[in-house]
Amino acid sequence: MEKRVIAVGTTSIRTLETVGSANQGEIVPSSGWTDIFISPGYEFKVVDAFITNFHLPKIYISDVSECLFRARLYIRSLSSCYS
To answer: Phi and psi at residue 61, in whole multiples of 5°?
Structure first.
């Protein structure tokens, strides 16, 4: 059974997406750096939802929010067309 991945904060989102991208969507123990920057058009591979306190800079968090919202809206519209 697949479980939802809910990240807490933008750093967690970046970390989970970096690790998951390097391991075919699987989260495994690892260490390293990330240079991932999530902006509109980014395709999420791991994170399904996130919680944040909307700290500054507000521009970055709004970009992340928009990406995730658009991706989920697109998936819902596709599933309603094919169900």
So the answer is: -65, -35
Q: What is the 3-state secondary structure (H, E, C) of the chain?
A: CCCCCEEECHHHHHHHHHHHHHCCCCCCCCCCCCCCCCCCCCCCCCCCEEECCCCCCHHHHHHHHHHHHHHHHHHHHHHHHCC
* Structural Rg of the chain based on CA atoms: 13
Q: Give this prediction's pTM.
A: 0.63
Question: Residue holding tokens 């809910």?
Answer: 6
Tokens standing for 65? Answer: 């929010």
Please write the tens of the pLDDT for every residue from 14-70. 999 999 989 888 899 999 998 888 877 888 889 988 877 655 555 566 667 777 776
Nearest one of 2, 77, 11 to 50, comparing CA atoms: 11
